[in-house]
Design goal:
The complex is a heterodimer of chains A (158) and B (754).
Chain A lengths: L3 E7 L2 E7 L5 H8 L18 E4 L2 E4 L12 E3 L12 H8 L9 H14 L5 H7 L11 H16 L1
Parallel strand pairs in A: 1-5
Antiparallel strand pairs in A: 1-2, 3-4, 3-5
Helix pairs in contact in A: 2-5
Chain B lengths: L23 H6 L14 E7 L5 E7 L1 H5 L3 E5 L12 H10 L4 E2 L5 E7 L2 H10 L1 E6 L6 H5 L25 E9 L2 H6 L3 E9 L11 E6 L5 E5 L4 H12 L6 E5 L15 H11 L3 E4 L2 H7 L6 E9 L5 E11 L7 H8 L9 E8 L14 H19 L3 H8 L18 H9 L12 E10 L5 E8 L5 E5 L7 H13 L6 E5 L16 H28 L6 E4 L2 E4 L10 E2 H6 L1 H4 L3 E8 L6 E11 L6 E11 L6 H20 L30 E6 L21 H13 L5 E2 L3 H13 L1
Chain lengths: 158, 754
């Protein structure tokens, strides 16, 4: 199969790659570009561990083709901190111990970032429904919800 | 130096605080490397061909077409994994489960595997492998499998544990019995007797990270394995034995692990990846898909349990009896045995008898799932206990308090308890504001108790002090939920230095002595004991070095708050030497300073919890929502309380999923119908309320700091607590887990029809 040439922007950097027509964006990120922060938990869009933001829209990168990233702006977990300055969500996840095994964490952080950008003052219920596309099996979500609440408060004050 | 593990009641400086975990920053920035995040030069992609049949003879496998496909570098079948198990029946089962030898025993059983230059070619190659099956009758239900007319899964199985060897083979591999006293006499003394049968369906641990490994076997017999596992030393032993390698030549590195909960305690894909690598002469990466994880890793047992409990009018239980049937997949297990041991462990009973039956079924080989076997037994027993309390007219908590086991009670499974937490958790629940909160229409409250043994086991730890005075702690128990933080706290505590100067890592199998795996809630319990021992050994050397620097007798040098202190009036002018001061001079006082520890961490304290749950049931749809949940559990000593809370909350959430909607659904064809997260639905954020926790600390007398394991007990009470809550909400006793909407509606309909 002939590869598809793709020019895109990932975490602010211009990136070019060749991918197969049936290759997912998740496979491209992980296997071609070495961006392994997004995880494959299911490959069917049910767990959210591969969450990335494409042109401001939260997506499961396992359900997007690598070829579809042409001309778009992709944000992944690797671009969430600014240099050595963690995003408030990252900091609050650490402080609240909102992760145990941590494999769902990149997806949750991306989904929470998307949520807070669209709704800076979410209620607990809005957080719970906003993050319902991301599975966590370790925490029971309690500390994740509290970390997002705390981060929202910090970001509003900033 | 002899290590004294007894509890000493010290005042803590570091233990009990809540610092950020050392591996945290990598996990929030995406840098942490899990099983699938590692690559090697020249690496191939491995894929596994799996049986579509629940039970079938493998008549032939033709791999020739697959081998000819361009880009395929190796194809293997069971022939490439010859039997080296030397009569070890348990290892043979593991081997047969990794790659079916004569029969495929469940939908998803591996029958062949390929290694190719990319995933696309590997998938194509699987389609070119021709397997001829002779399909056999199958059985997937635990009760049907236990019936004497059921299709036989293994005609060499004659039930063990009976007085006489049975004349015919069956699917029941073993009978076990526990208890004491005379239950017949006990039931004769009872004024009230409750007798009920219960069922629970099979569930999966549901870790978000699928099994993944990279295997590299060299021509000289050395090999490397990178893998997500709860126990890399155990994986090394199993893989070395199955592949015929010397254990010391197989280095196993545990990746970060994306959840295990007992499910990453067994090898499945790893021997296959090693065999592929050996045949191809190149490294092979093998990652399971989610479908494969459900169909072909190790879910927990499905169960069928009969319980009978009798009590006098005053609320004293006079006798308790249970018969427990647990599915173990197509291979022998000891799951019903554990259920039979745990069933009545919360209570002080004069007459108790439990009998367990291990039942073969055409489902994946059962693996541990967090306090394995205990939640199902607790569901049955705690449901019957609730019902009995109602019949007597006693409050459910008071009835349990009256019968709770205490220090000195002979447990139903044999031993006599030391100081335990069941009574205190019940007293805490009795006085918890949750118990007094008002309930609305269609809402119900339930509570239940749970027990888990906890485990200690073989443990080896190294503590190295750098010349700058910072400390590297190498442990061999995989960190599944923050143990590097808790063990760093323990090292800081013992040495008397700040947490920030300790860095804990999980060492690979070539860098540290053998460690049992992180199971049985042993990670922090056993490795903290070994860390304390290692730190004390290091302190002995630090004192010797200080004595040398001062030129005084070592017996006059004491260790206090991170400093060597010369004790005695004659040393009045000597200012204390800090750990950093001593480390800085180590090059001239005898070389590197380290403390090592190898021990068997005996004395894991048993663990008890009591949970409270409020639910709201929609009588139109049968849908149930948990609206409030409280966990009360004894931690012995919470080393890092935030992560202890996390264990309590996580276990409760898994129990909620199990109680209300998770189950393996098999079709009549014996195929799993819901092998994905869409149809096997684990709780999502919007399904759950906040989960309140209360940590009790009843010190374990067999650990220097009083620590008990905390990881597993939290999944034991939820099934029963939620069943009791639902039963109280709808007025019908629920006896089948999960209490999915159709089951609740059916129970309501049956009640209406009388």
């Amino acid at each position: 199969m002939a590869g598809v040439a793709v020019s895109t922007t990932i975490n602010g950097d211009a990136v070019e790659y060749l991918c197969q027509p049936d290759e997912t964006l998740l496979e491209v990120l992980r296997d071609r570009l070495g961006l392994t922060g997004a995880k494959e938990g299911c490959g069917t869009g049910d767990c959210g561990a591969c969450s990335v933001i494409v042109d401001g829209r939260l997506v499961c990168s396992c359900l997007v083709l690598g070829a579809e990233a042409e001309g778009r702006k992709v944000e992944t977990i690797e671009g969430m901190a600014h240099g050595d300055q963690l995003h408030p969500l990252q900091q609050k996840f650490l402080e609240h111990a909102a992760l145990q095994c941590g494999v769902c964490t990149p997806g949750f952080l991306i989904a929470a970032k998307d949520l807070l950008e669209k709704n800076p003052s979410p209620t607990e219920e809005e957080i719970r429904f906003g993050l319902a596309g991301n599975l966590c099996r370790c925490t029971g979500y309690d500390k994740i919800v509290r970390a997002v609440q705390d981060a929202a408060n910090v970001m509003k004050g900033a | 130096m002899n290590f004294d593990p007894r509890f000493s009641g010290r005042q803590f400086a570091s233990v009990g605080t809540r610092p950020i975990r050392p591996d945290g920053i990598d996990k929030v920035t995406g840098r942490a490397r899990y099983g699938a995040d590692f690559n090697m030069a020249g690496q191939l992609v491995g894929r596994v061909l799996r049986s579509p049949h629940a039970h079938a003879v493998i008549k032939s496998i033709d791999t020739s077409k697959a081998e000819k496909l361009a880009g395929v570098k190796a194809v293997i079948t069971a022939k490439d994994l010859p039997d080296l198990t030397d009569g070890d029946a348990a290892m043979y089962d593991i081997l047969d489960n990794c790659m079916a030898r004569k029969k495929a025993l469940y939908d998803g059983h591996a029958v062949a595997a390929v290694a190719a230059i990319d995933a696309r070619i590997a998938r194509q190659a699987l389609k070119l492998i021709e397997v001829e099956y002779e399909v056999l009758p199958h059985v997937t239900d635990v009760d049907e499998a236990a019936h004497h007319h059921a299709p036989l899964i293994n005609d060499q199985v004659f039930t063990e544990g009976l007085e006489e060897k049975p004349a015919k083979p069956s699917n029941i591999t073993k009978r076990t019995q526990f208890g004491h006293g005379d239950v017949h006499k006990g039931f004769a003394e009872a004024d009230f007797v409750v007798e009920r049968s219960f069922k629970t369906e099979q569930t999966h641990q549901g870790y978000i990270e699928p099994h993944a490994c990279v295997a590299s076997v060299n021509a000289d017999g050395t090999a490397d394995l990178w893998v997500c596992t709860q126990g890399h030393f155990v994986y090394r032993q199993h893989c070395a034995q199955l592949l015929g390698l010397e254990a010391s030549k197989l280095r196993v590195t545990s990746s970060e692990i994306g959840g295990g909960f007992g499910g990453k305690t067994h090898v499945w894909a790893e021997p296959v990846a090693l065999a592929l690598s050996r045949k191809a002469g190149r490294p092979v990466k093998l990652v399971m898909t989610r479908d494969e994880v459900f169909r072909a890793s190790g879910p927990t047992s499905a169960t069928s349990i009969d319980v009978k409990i009798g009590a006098r009018k005053d609320g004293t239980i006079t006798a308790a009896e249970a018969t427990l049937r647990y599915s173990s997949g197509p291979y022998a297990g000891s799951w019903a045995e554990i259920g039979a041991m745990t069933a009545f462990a919360c209570y002080k009973l004069e007459n108790v008898k439990t009998v367990g039956y291990e039942v073969l079924v055409n489902r994946p080989k059962t693996a541990a799932y967090r306090a394995p076997s205990a939640p199902m037994a607790a569901f049955a027993v705690e449901s019957a206990v609730d019902e009995l309390a109602k019949e007597i007219g006693m409050d459910a908590v008071d009835f349990r308090i009256k019968n709770a086991a205490q220090e000195g009670t002979r447990a139903s499974y044999g031993p006599v308890y030391g100081p335990i937490g069941i009574g205190p958790t019940l007293e805490a629940v009795k006085h918890h504001p949750h118990m007094k909160a008002p309930l609305k229409e269609n809402q119900g409250r339930g509570m239940a108790c749970g027990f888990w043994f906890n485990f200690g086991g073989q443990t080896c730890t190294d503590l190295n002090i750098g010349m700058d005075g910072s400390v590297s702690l190498a442990v061999g128990t995989v960190d599944v939920g923050g143990s590097r933080a808790s063990l760093s706290l323990v090292a800081a505590e013992e040495l008397g230095i700040d947490y920030s100067h300790v860095k804990a890592i999980v060492a690979d199998t070539s860098s540290l002595g053998y460690n049992d795996m992180t199971d049985g809630s042993r990670g922090t319990f056993s490795s903290s004991m070994a860390t304390i021992s290692a730190a004390r050994n290091a302190i002995k050397i630090l004192r010797e070095r200080a004595a040398q620097m001062w030129d005084v007798p070592v017996d006059d040098v004491h260790w206090e708050k991170g400093h060597a202190i010369a004790k005695g009036e004659k040393y009045g002018n000597l200012s204390p030497l800090s750990l950093k001061d001593i480390a800085a001079k180590s090059g001239t006082t005898g070389g590197p300073i380290a403390g090592h520890s190898e021990l068997v961490a005996d004395g894991a304290g048993v663990s008890f919890a009591t949970h409270i749950c409020d639910v709201e049931v929609d009588p139109e749809t049968g849908s149930t929502r948990v609206i409030r949940y409280t966990v009360v559990q004894d931690a012995g000593k919470a080393v890092h309380p935030t992560y202890v809370e996390g264990q309590y909350q996580g276990g409760a959430a898994q129990g909620i999923g199990w109680a209300l909607n998770e189950e393996y659904i098999y079709g009549k064809d014996g195929r799993l119908q819901n092998a994905g997260f869409l149809d096997y639905r684990i709780p999502v954020c919007s399904d759950l309320p906040m989960i309140d926790t209360q940590i009790l600390e009843i010190p374990n007398p067999n650990h220097p700091y009083g620590v008990r394991g905390v990881g597993e007990t939290s999944i034991v009470p939820p099934l029963a607590a939620i069943a009791n809550a639902v039963s109280n909400a709808v007025g019908v006793r629920m006896t089948h887990i999960p209490m999915s909407p159709p089951r609740i509606l059916a129970a309501l309909d049956a009640e209406r029809e009388g």
